[in-house]
Amino acid sequence: MPRGLNVDTIGPVDVAVVVFEGNRINGDVAPALWELQKNGTVRILDLSFVRKDDDGSVAVVEGADAEVADDFGSIADAQFDLFSDEDLHAVAEELPPASSALVVAWENSWAARLSTAVRASHGDLRLLERIPRAVVVEAVAALGDD
User: Going by DSSP bridges, is the β-strand pair 58-62/99-107 parallel, antiparallel, or unpaired?
Assistant: First the structure.
């Protein structure tokens, strides 16, 4: 087990794939990720980028690589290298040509204490579902229709 990961106290872990038009990787999301990690909301476990060119060729860029280190280096230094090359190439296969994606795994640190308490009380989480943003927007808009 990687140092710093304890299965008895780790919070829920999410993996997100954020696709961007164009295959230029930029650091626009780095400040938000850094802030979430700094304030303890999440702990970034792994962070990589995949890029697909017009001709279908694929490149994998790790968060600590020189190309993105200025923006993501402070986030990437705490990684546990959870994504395999196969994982990242599978993500890249799904990308449209001339696009890129951020692939990030984070521990929901904010929920670690609750998760530990649930397990200690022999509880078992049976359902956890993320509601898509479009559904939330529609529901909020419907509230105003009354």
Answer: unpaired
